[in-house]
């Protein structure tokens, strides 16, 4: 075994082997994979190994599509069979909501050039004569769907990697990973040690144990999962072709041909956790005792849909473990607190995603960043708050609802509340309906009584009208928005200004009390974040950014060394905040403070430390609503006092609490982009309209990359769309994000955020398009069906910024 390597992958399941293969594809051949047992010894060997291309997320669809198309090429390249069967997959909708979901996926497939389209019942019956299609509202067909041989695929990745120079050591458990002072690692095994700059945890079922070797805690929890295979079914034996698989998600089972019988698997409501206190180290090619009673309801629904399934006995039952994150998406990316430690853990559809995940890991390690925006899959979306209890509660909920539709704006209740602010109880009493943001409970909207919960769907839900009342109240008078979930940082010391200038693309304010907006530039020159930086003292700055991206952004802040004597610290927990905005916000706030809030004394993009309602606040004259307004930041201990004072003052002006759903609508009326929707590393500054804030006459993080991309033509541009009222009213739905945009029948882009603009009376969407300009008429695929829309030349609310600056 070699003593040094460019990267060491821990775990020889399908994911570890794919990572090794893709590292070699991107040119790294001095790489090693260590497997404690035989390859495939975790979840991999017993998987049903179904493969699907389409996913609600466009980027995951891209990665799944890449995976599905790689298997045949991999087989040809290595000579190792991957056991690929692609007889196609039929997707069935029993409910209206499922129909919306499938139609939306079909529209996305058309935009991205993937094959997934509707077929009529006659065609579906020809494709799968054993299915009873009664009660099915809509059927989609994915000709490339199918399944693979789990061991074959793993062996093929391994063969491809070995052929390119990688080493694989089986029966070589990693016993320790020791971080070295320079940031590199020593990986210890009974066969010797390897020094490496990159440790990659692909230990699947043992992801937690391997992470713990490096002092890392990952939010992972295994569960049992079962499928069974029937004896030969006469009708199948009589066929001269393989039947397509059936994705009847409303029935909560999966079904495909296996041999001359059927394979049926289920995510049952009465699920079972496994290995809550750690995965046994001696567990390998083992299974659990069958417990088909638990999945009986699902089985009966499968048999009702495919009656032939009930005619044969059960040949084999597989009840094996799989490991989940709290939201069932992979935990992917370098650990921000441990240089050179990369995670790729908790992947549920490992065979649909193996190649995509391998490519993403290799992208990041070799090139410094992934080619796609993977923020929703980044391990940094979880922090310490995602503890064992939270993880278990969320995993139980995810498992039991694996095939339920995850609606836009949906907030699941499991494991909550997790982190709350002092005003939580007060807000609850006022009827707040909460959402989860990086562990924090924050008010989404206010119902007329406590205890109301969101209804969920693709159409307008129970919150749509109350959110309208809040948004209109703010535009007419004022609104009080809890913004405590924003990330807040303080940078202080003699080197603070220089350091911030070296990090951010905009020039830092020279004058105390001035604020600036600034992008953070990603490794490839895209937008890694957007921040407000305020000079609060000669040598002190406050930085406000996205709360959910705090751990993600930590990676970037670490890239520029802090000068000695300069501190950079998070204030997110210690500080709470409210945004008070609207035409009467000044008058209202003036009742609570002796500081003058007149524009002459307190202009836009300025800040002051003021006392307001008896509470010390840092007041910033900015508002994401696009209206006249202030952000007021105070110590967490003062939050209730400040909130009480604001609500009391608001009464006189018919102003009151406003939630973050209204904030989303208000910022779209103004055309403002938001992190992870419009702003992401995938987009260049000139594409998102932030080029003016990138100052090329100074140094900043990833300036060379920014210069390179900014020399080029924008590939797409961010536009604001007004959707046709008649179409939208007929659907009773607004765009929510992800909907494809077509022009003259050709796909030209996609929506990034959508909302009804209550104060302007328009259904609006922000999105990226190519080859279209203001005034052009396009079609937005709301609910997967075309809705007429026009590209606006300017935002419908306060286009000149008179309210904002007034
Ligand atoms: C019943 C069942 C059915 C499934 N069906 C499907 C399906 O139809 N489609 C689909 O896409 N997915 C399916 N899956 C999920 C799929 O199996 C997983 O997504 C996939 O196998 C995960 O692979 P992995 O490489 O991440 O982890 P694992 O397969 O768990 O591999 C981890 C490897 O790391 C090794 N390791 C652990 N600790 C160490 C150490 N200290 N040193 C060295 N090596 C170590 C282990 O021995 C193991 O080989 C199914 C899973 C189950 C349980």
What would you say about this model in short?
The chain is of the alpha+beta class and 806 residues long. Helices cover 26% and strands 27% of the residues. Helix 2 packs across helix 9 (350-367).
Overview of the molecule:
There is one protein chain. The chain is of the alpha+beta class. It is 26% helix and 27% strand. The protein is built from 21 helices and 38 strands. Strands 5-6-4-14-15-16-13-17 form an eight-stranded mixed beta sheet, sandwiched between helices. A hairpin with a 2-residue loop joins strand 34 and strand 35. The radius of gyration is 27 Å and the shape is globular. The N and C termini lie far apart (70 Å). Flavin-adenine dinucleotide (FAD) binds next to helix 1, strand 13, strand 17 and helix 9.
Radius of gyration: 27 Å
Main sheet: which strands, in order across?
A: 5-6-4-14-15-16-13-17
Attached small molecules: flavin-adenine dinucleotide
Which residue ranges are poorly predicted, with pLDDT under 50 across at least 5 consecutive positions?
none
Task: Profile the largest sheet.
Answer: 8 strands, mixed
Q: Per DSSP, what share of the residues sits in E-state strands of 2 or more residues? A: 25-35%
Tally the helices: 21
Structural class: alpha+beta
- Average pLDDT rating: 97
The strand count comes to: 38
Global geometry? globular
- Assign a percent range to the helix content: 25-40%
- How far apart the termini lie comes to 70 Å
């Amino acid at each position: 075994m070699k003593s040094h390597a460019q990267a060491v992958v821990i775990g020889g399941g399908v994911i570890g082997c794919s990572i090794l293969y893709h590292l070699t594809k991107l040119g790294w051949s001095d790489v090693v994979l260590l497997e404690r047992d035989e390859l495939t010894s975790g979840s991999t060997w017993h998987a049903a190994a179904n493969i699907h291309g389409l996913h609600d997320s466009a980027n995951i669809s891209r990665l799944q599509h890449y995976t599905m198309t790689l298997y045949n090429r991999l087989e040809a390249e290595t000579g190792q069979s991957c056991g690929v069967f692609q007889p196609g997959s039929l997707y069935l909708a029993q409910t209206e909501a499922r129909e919306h979901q499938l139609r939306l996926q079909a529209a996305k497939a058309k935009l991205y050039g993937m094959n997934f389209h509707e077929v009529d019942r006659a065609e579906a019956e020809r494709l799968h004569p054993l299915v009873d299609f009664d009660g099915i509202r809509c059927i989609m067909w994915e000709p490339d769907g199918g399944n693979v041989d789990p061991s074959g695929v793993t062996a093929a990745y391994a063969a491809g990697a070995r052929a390119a120079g990688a080493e694989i050591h089986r029966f070589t458990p990693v016993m320790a990973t020791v971080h070295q002072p320079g940031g590199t690692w020593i990986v210890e095994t009974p066969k010797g040690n390897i020094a490496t700059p990159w440790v990659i945890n692909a230990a699947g079922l043992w992801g937690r144990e391997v992470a713990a070797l490096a002092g890392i805690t990952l939010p992972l929890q295994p569960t049992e999962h079962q499928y069974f295979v029937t004896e030969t079914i006469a009708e199948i034996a009589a066929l001269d072709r393989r039947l397509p698989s059936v994705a009847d998600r409303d029935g909560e089972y999966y079904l495909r041909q296996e041999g001359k019988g059927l394979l049926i698997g289920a995510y049952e409501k009465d699920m079972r956790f496994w290995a809550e206190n750690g995965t046994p180290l001696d567990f390998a090619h083992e299974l659990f005792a069958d417990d088909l009673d638990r999945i009986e309801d699902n089985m009966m629904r499968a048999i009702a849909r495919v009656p032939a399934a009930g005619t044969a006995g059960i040949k084999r039952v597989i009840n094996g473990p799989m490991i989940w994150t709290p939201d069932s998406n992979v935990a992917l990316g370098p650990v921000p607190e441990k240089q050179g430690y990369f995670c790729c853990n908790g992947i549920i559809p490992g065979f649909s995603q193996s190649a995509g995940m391998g490519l993403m890991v290799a992208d990041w390690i070799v090139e410094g960043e992934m080619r796609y925006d993977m923020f929703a899959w980044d391990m940094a979306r979880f922090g310490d708050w995602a503890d064992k209890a939270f993880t278990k509660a969320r995993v139980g909920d995810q498992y039991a609802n694996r095939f339920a539709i995850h609606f836009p704006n949906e907030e699941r209740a499991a494991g909550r509340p997790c982190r709350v602010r002092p005003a939580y109880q007060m807000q609850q009493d006022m009827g707040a309906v909460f959402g989860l943001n990086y562990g924090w409970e924050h008010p989404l909207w206010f119902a007329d009584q406590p205890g109301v919960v969101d209804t969920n769907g693709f159409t307008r839900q129970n919150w749509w009208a109350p959110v309208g009342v809040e948004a209109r109240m703010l535009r007419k008078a004022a609104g009080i928005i809890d913004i405590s979930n924003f990330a807040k940082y303080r940078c202080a010391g003699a080197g603070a200004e220089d350091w911030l200038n070296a990090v951010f693309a905009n020039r830092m304010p020279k004058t105390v009390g001035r604020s600036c907006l600034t992008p953070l530039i990603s490794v490839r020159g895209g937008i890694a974040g957007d921040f407000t930086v305020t000079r609060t003292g000669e040598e002190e700055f406050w930085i406000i950014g996205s709360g959910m991206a705090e751990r993600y952004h930590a990676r970037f802040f670490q890239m520029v060394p802090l000068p000695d004597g300069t501190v950079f610290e998070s204030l997110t927990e210690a500080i709470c905040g409210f945004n008070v905005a609207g035409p009467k916000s000044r008058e209202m706030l003036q009742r609570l403070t002796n500081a003058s809030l007149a524009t002459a004394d307190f202009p836009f993009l300025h800040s002051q430390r003021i006392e307001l309602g008896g509470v010390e606040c840092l007041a910033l004259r900015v508002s994401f609503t696009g209206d006249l307004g202030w952000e007021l930041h105070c110590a967490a201990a003062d939050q209730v006092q400040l909130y009480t004072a604001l609500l009391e003052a608001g009464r006189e002006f018919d102003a009151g609490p406003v939630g973050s759903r209204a904030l989303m609508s208000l910022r779209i009326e103004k055309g403002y982009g938001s992190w992870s929707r419009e702003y992401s590393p995938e987009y260049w500054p000139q594409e998102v309209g932030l080029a003016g804030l990138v100052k090329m006459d100074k140094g900043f993080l990833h300036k060379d990359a920014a210069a390179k991309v900014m020399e080029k033509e924008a590939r797409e541009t961010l536009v604001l769309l007004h959707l046709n009222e008649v179409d939208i009213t007929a659907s009773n739905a607004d765009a929510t994000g992800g909907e494809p945009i077509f022009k003259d029948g050709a796909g030209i882009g996609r929506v990034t955020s959508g909302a009804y603009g209550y104060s302007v009376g328009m259904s609006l969407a922000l999105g990226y398009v190519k080859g279209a300009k203001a005034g052009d008429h396009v079609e937005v695929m709301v609910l997967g069906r075309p809705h007429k829309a026009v590209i606006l030349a300017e935002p419908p609310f306060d286009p000149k910024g008179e309210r904002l600056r007034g």
